[in-house]
Each structure stands twice: as structure tokens, then as C-alpha cells.
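User: I'm putting together a small comparison set for a docking exercise, and I want a reference complex before I start. The sequence is below, and the ligand is zinc ion. Could you produce the 3D structure with the ligand included, as C-alpha cells?
Assistant: Of course. I'll restate your input first, then give the C-alpha cells for the complex.
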Amino acid sequence: MKLTAPPHRGRSSASPSLSQTTAPGFLNPNQQKVIAATGARSTSRANQSIYHLRCGLCSHDYGCNGLDIKGRLCPSCQSGVPGEPLRERGPMLDFSS
Ligand SMILES: [Zn+2]
């Protein structure tokens, strides 16, 4: 895993109109971190897809649509609403042969 410090570009004090709340690595004010986009369609909001989020406090993994990331609360330890389903990539993990 490579961690390169991004060059800080124009740190204005004004709130950015386009914040990358769906970018992997984004941490919202509630310590909920974006792990990856799953590409699955959100079940709670039209035209949104589900992102894999992880709680920074209890490491709970869950799904969240793109619109709700910035204010998301952990469904496990912060009484947030239940997460959306995280789908595994393939159903072929049950049998190891
Ligand atoms: Zn949590």
C-alpha cells in the first residue's frame, strides 16, 4: 500500500462546493471511512450506488449510498440507521474445492 502525500493545492477557508465524499479514504466527521465503491445500486435512494464504509471506532463494515456518506453514523456503535447490504463479489466462496 503506497501512501504518497498529495500536494496541498489552494487551501481556501471557504467550504468547497465539491468535496470528494465518495472517494476511498474519505473520513466523515463521525469517523466513518470510505473503503471502496461497490457499484451496487442503492436500495434506499434512487440513482445512488452503494459504497463500502468502515467505522473508525468499532471497525464495523457496512454499505452506504453516496449521498449519505458525509453525515453517516455507524449503525453499530453510533445508533445510525442500518447499513445497506454489502454484496460479495462472487457467490463462489462457499465451496473450497
Ligand atoms: Zn462503529
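Strands lie at 32-41, 49-55, 61-65. The radius of gyration is 15 Å.
User: Thanks, that's exactly what I needed.
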